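User: Hi! I have a protein structure encoded as tokens and I'd like to know what sequence might fold into it. I'm fairly new to this, so please keep things simple.
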């Protein structure tokens, strides 16, 4: 597995199949160490420039996949390596559930009250995974949540808490007791049937993020970070040419 660096943050050049193989290897290992997956995107890279906690989480995560065409573009422009495709959480989760099925113990953490439970029920009904715990993202006692996860001993901890998710996992990694933990943004809402993914044609053209942004006004405020990412990448390219 080759790891490259984009604006001070790492990206692993892996495919979806390689990611699933990596997860299977981690889940089959004995012991209580939690391996973290971050699906990085341009916003995360920009935030990491001014958020030390996120930057450290990215640098110390065991696997960093490309969750956006912007990352694929930046990797090619700055390193010369070609990622065959992005590997977002929206593809990792269904593929992992399909591959592992009833062998997989999953804990769902995040989203609004009741949503994670519906997501867990839907996933269990469709793929047969074992649901070993559910907790919404609106908690105040972090230690109690970490303790509950540790007692559940999940193979996979799925965390959908927006910008908090990756630092939450990193901060508590040693105490979580999960084999693998992954931040998945709004994917819990999708699995619960609360939110639909972008149309298949948008997924195929790799512009799912653009369609979601256009249709959801709450996402419009994120656009400046995307522009900042492009500026930072182009500036870094010019610097490297000097």
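Assistant: Happy to help. Inverse folding works backwards from shape to sequence: for each of the 242 positions I chose a residue that suits the local structure. Here it is:
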């Amino acid at each position: 597995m080759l790891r490259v660096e984009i604006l001070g943050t790492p990206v692993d050049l892996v495919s979806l199949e390689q990611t699933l193989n990596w997860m299977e290897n981690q889940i089959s290992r004995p012991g209580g160490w939690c391996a973290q997956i971050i699906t990085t995107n341009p916003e995360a890279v920009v935030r990491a420039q001014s958020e030390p906690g996120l930057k450290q989480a990215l640098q110390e995560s065991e696997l960093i996949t490309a969750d956006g065409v912007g990352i694929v573009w930046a990797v090619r422009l700055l390193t010369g390596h070609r990622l065959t495709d992005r590997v977002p959480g929206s593809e990792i989760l269904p593929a992992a559930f399909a591959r592992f099925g009833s062998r997989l113990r999953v804990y769902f953490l995040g989203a609004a009250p009741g949503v994670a439970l519906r997501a867990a029920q839907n996933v269990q009904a469709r793929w047969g995974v074992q649901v070993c715990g559910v907790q919404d993202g609106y908690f105040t006692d972090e230690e109690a949540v970490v303790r509950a996860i540790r007692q559940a001993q999940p193979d996979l901890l799925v965390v959908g808490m927006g910008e908090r998710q990756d630092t939450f996992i990193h901060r508590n990694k040693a105490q979580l007791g999960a084999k693998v933990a992954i931040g998945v943004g709004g994917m819990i809402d999708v699995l619960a049937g609360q939110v639909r993914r972008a149309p298949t044609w948008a997924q195929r053209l790799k512009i799912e993020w653009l369609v979601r942004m256009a249709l959801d006004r709450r996402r419009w405020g994120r656009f400046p970070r995307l522009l900042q990412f492009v500026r930072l990448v182009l500036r870094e390219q010019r610097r490297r040419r000097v």
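A useful reference point when you look it over: DSSP finds twelve helices and eight strands in the chain. Feel free to ask if any position seems puzzling.
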